[in-house]
Fold:
Amino acid sequence: MIIEKPKGWSDLEFIRNFLYLRISDECNCMDDVLEIGCGNGMGLQQKGPPLIAKKVKSYLGVDKAKWKNPPFDFIHGDIFEAGLGKYDVVIALYVIQYVDKDRLFELVSRALKPTGIAFFSEGKAWNDTEAALECLKKHFNNIRISKVKDGMIVSVKEEGDGIFCMVSNDASLVLQ
Structure:
């Protein structure tokens, strides 16, 4: 199935919306959500249909960008200095290239509830699935990596524009 980019949307808006849809489909429990590098809170306030907002009871966005009266709980600053709780879902789309990967994955692993799932995506800056897998294995025991091509999830065997990862410390979860 090919999805056309809506008129007026940037490529990033289109790809992020697609990934939020995938996250929403994947998660049964999204009571407590942490989004690292949330930008304008796109996951909650979509141009298109609300993708994760319907399922979320508690959302915390962390970003270095400043917001005046954000419509969600927000921490302005460095994720590594933020006091975090435990979350069902942690989302970090297109932030891996800006931070220390090992440090980020360690932080996310600690922030996940026992049955929580984290989602990472990155563009060409981190397109090596083997290197991604080795790095993720240090912090998570349940990993699913796919490639992203033209805003769509594709097999890791295909050429892609980036990667999309689902990880958990709950080995019983089936990550599709």
Notes: DSSP finds three helices and eight strands in the chain. The domain at 11-168 is CATH 3.40.50.150 (Rossmann fold).
